[in-house]
Design a protein that fits this description.
- The structure holds two protein chains of two kinds.
- Chain A is mostly helical.
- Chain A contains four helices and no strands.
- In chain A, helix 1 crosses helix 3 and helix 1 crosses helix 4.
- The radius of gyration of chain A is 11 Å and the shape is globular.
- Chain B is an alpha+beta fold.
- Chain B is globular, with a radius of gyration of 23 Å.
- The longest helix of chain B is centred in the middle third of the chain and has 25 residues.
- In chain B, helix 2 packs parallel to helix 3 and helix 6 packs across helix 9.
- At the A-B interface, helix 3 of A face helix 5 and helix 7 of B.
C-alpha cells in the first residue's frame, strides 16, 4: 500500500465520521482534530477503523505522528503488513 | 387496562410527534420493548414500554403531534401502567402552551414505580422495524424515519441498501438527495431538503434556549472550580492502554465520567431532581453525558448506573451512547432520567466551562481541556497536565461547602485511578 492508497482509505473513513466536512478544503498537514472537528472518541473510532481496514494498529505513543491526514497516511503506508 | 402515553423525554419536552408504531393491535409487549418512535425537537427517540401487556388499540396515527401525557395506545394486561416520565422525574406543573387532554392528576403527579434497570431488558428489546405491505419487516433507523416523515416518503416504498434503510435511501426516494443535482448545475438558493432540516435545527435551538432560560430563571446556581493534576490518571491510562488493541483502549473521558459517578454516590444533594418545590435525591447515579452534535445542538442522554460499571464496561457504553446520540437512535429511558450531567469540552475545547444545570437536575460537572502548565509540587516547579473541573450546583439544595467536597472527591478519585477500574455488581 502506497501513501496515495492509504490516504484514500483514511479520507474515506474520516468522511464517514464527519460527513459534513469537505476534505478537499482542509489542510492535510494540520491536526485533523481541529481541521475536521474530531473529538477524542471520533479520533479513537478513526484509529480503530484504520486497524480494521489496513491491519495497522497505531499505539497511543505514536498518536502525535498521525494527527494530520498526511501524517496518518504516511504512517500507515510505512507500517502496513506486506 | 392502561394507556401508553406520550412520554416526557426531558424537561424541555412539551409535545412529541409519533413517527412510527413498531407494534400492531394484538401484539404482546414486554418490559423494555421498543414499541414506537417519537420525534422530539431534539431527536428521534425509540420509546420503550415498561410493562407487560397486549396492544388493544393504537389511538394516534403516525405523523400526529400530541402533548406529553396524551394517550397513544391502549394496553391490556396485568399491572399495565405507562412509562410516562420513564424512571425520571414526572413532568412538572409548568404552564403548557397547549391544554393537555384531560390528564388525571394522580397519573401525572405520582412517581411511577421504579422499573427494572434497562441493561437487563436489552436482550428482549424488539428490533426497530415495521412491516411492509406484504407483511415483511422494514428496518430503518429512527433518523431515516424522521427524514421520511419530513419529506413525506412512505418507508414501505423505499429500497434500503445494506439491509437497513438509511437517510440517504430516504432522500434518494424523495428525489431530494444532494447527489441528485448535477455537479455543474447552478445550485438553487435552497436545496429541496434544506427547509425541513433547518426547521429541525431551529426547533432544537429553540428547545435548548427554552430549557436553559428556565434553568437560569428558576435555579439559583452557584459555581466552584478546582484544578486537578491529571499526571497519575494519564500515566495509569497510558500503561493500561499500551497493552491493548485500539478497540479496548480507555479514554480519559470515560475515567472522568466514572470519577464523577463514584463521587456522586456519596453526595445525595448533588444527585437527584428538584420537582414541585421539593428535592428528591436518587439512589441510582445516571450520568447525563453532554454530546455536541455535528452541525450544532446538544443532547445529554444518560449512562445508567455509571458508578457501578467497570471502566471496560463504561467505555464501550459511552462510545455507543455518543454514536447513537449523533445518529438519532436514543432510547426513551436514556432521555428521561439523568440524575446529574457531565460536560467534557475535550481535547479541542476551552480550558474551563461554567455549566448551566439541566432542570430538574441540581448539579452539572464541567471539565475543560487538559493542558500542560507549570505548577508547584512539593516546593518545586513542575510541568504537569492540569484539568480545571467546575461545578454548577443548585443553592436550593446545597451550599458551596458541600459542592467543594464533591469536587474534592472527584479530584481524590482521579489521584487513585486504579480504584476506578473495577465495577460493582
Amino acid at each position: 500500500m502506497n501513501v496515495d492508497e492509504s490516504r484514500s482509505v483514511v479520507a474515506g473513513l474520516v468522511e464517514q465520521i464527519a460527513p459534513d466536512v469537505d476534505l478537499t478544503s482542509i489542510d492535510p498537514e494540520r491536526d485533523m482534530r481541529r481541521e475536521v472537528d474530531l473529538d477524542s472518541l471520533d479520533f479513537q473510532t478513526l484509529v480503530e477503523q484504520v486497524a480494521e481496514a489496513t491491519g495497522v494498529e497505531i499505539p497511543e505513543t505514536d498518536y502525535p505522528q498521525v494527527r494530520s491526514l498526511t501524517g496518518m497516511s504516511e504512517y500507515i503506508a510505512a507500517h502496513v503488513p506486506s | 387496562m392502561g394507556d401508553f402515553r406520550m412520554p416526557s423525554l426531558g424537561a424541555d419536552m412539551t409535545e412529541g410527534t409519533l413517527l412510527e408504531w413498531l407494534v400492531h393491535p394484538g401484539d404482546v409487549v414486554h418490559r423494555g420493548d421498543i414499541i414506537a418512535v417519537v420525534d422530539t425537537s431534539k431527536s428521534a427517540i425509540d420509546v420503550e414500554v415498561f410493562e407487560e401487556g397486549r396492544v388493544v388499540e393504537l389511538l394516534v396515527q403516525p405523523g400526529t403531534t400530541v402533548p406529553v401525557g396524551a394517550p397513544l395506545a391502549r394496553l391490556d394486561g396485568v399491572g399495565v401502567a405507562t412509562d410516562e416520565g420513564g424512571r425520571g422525574p414526572q413532568p412538572e406543573a409548568t404552564p403548557k402552551p397547549k391544554p393537555k387532554p384531560k390528564p388525571k392528576p394522580e397519573e401525572t403527579l405520582t412517581p411511577a414505580p421504579s422499573p427494572v434497570p434497562p441493561a437487563k431488558e436489552a436482550a428482549r428489546r424488539a428490533p426497530a422495524a415495521q412491516q411492509h405491505r406484504d407483511g415483511s419487516h422494514i428496518a430503518a433507523s429512527p433518523f431515516a424515519r424522521r427524514r421520511a416523515q419530513e419529506l413525506g416518503v412512505d418507508l414501505s416504498t423505499v429500497v434500503g441498501h445494506g439491509g437497513v434503510i438509511s437517510v440517504a435511501d430516504v432522500e434518494a426516494a424523495a428525489g431530494s438527495g444532494p447527489s441528485e443535482a448535477p455537479p455543474e448545475s447552478v445550485p438553487p438558493a435552497q436545496p429541496p431538503s434544506a427547509p425541513a432540516a433547518s426547521d429541525h435545527a431551529a426547533a432544537m435551538r429553540q428547545a435548548i434556549g427554552a430549557l436553559m432560560a428556565r434553568s437560569k430563571r428558576e435555579i439559583p446556581h452557584y459555581y466552584l472550580q478546582t484544578t486537578i493534576d491529571m499526571s497519575a490518571a494519564l500515566d495509569w491510562l497510558s500503561g493500561l492502554n499500551a497493552e491493548r488493541t485500539v478497540a479496548e483502549r480507555v479514554l480519559p473521558a470515560a475515567l472522568l465520567l466514572k470519577a464523577v459517578a463514584v463521587s456522586a454516590r456519596g453526595m445525595p444533594d448533588m444527585n437527584g431532581f428538584f420537582v414541585d418545590g421539593n428535592f428528591r435525591p436518587q439512589d441510582h447515579v445516571h450520568v447525563g453525558v453532554a454530546v455536541s452534535l455535528r452541525g450544532g445542538g446538544l443532547i445529554a442522554p444518560a449512562l445508567h448506573d455509571a458508578d457501578l460499571a467497570s471502566l471496560d464496561d463504561l467505555m464501550p457504553r459511552m462510545k455507543d451512547l455518543v454514536q447513537r446520540a449523533r445518529s438519532g437512535r436514543l432510547r426513551s429511558s436514556e432521555m428521561s432520567d439523568p440524575t446529574l450531567t457531565v460536560t467534557n469540552l475535550g481535547e479541542q475545547g476551552a480550558e474551563l466551562v461554567h455549566g448551566v444545570i439541566y432542570p430538574p437536575q441540581v448539579s452539572l460537572v464541567g471539565f475543560g481541556r487538559i493542558v500542560e502548565r507549570p505548577i508547584a509540587v512539593q516546593g518545586m516547579l513542575a510541568v504537569r497536565p492540569l484539568l480545571v473541573a467546575t461545578l454548577a450546583a443548585d443553592h436550593r439544595v446545597s451550599d458551596g461547602h458541600r459542592g467543594g467536597l464533591f469536587l474534592a472527591a472527584i479530584d481524590a478519585a482521579l489521584q487513585s485511578p486504579e480504584n476506578l477500574q473495577g465495577g460493582t455488581s
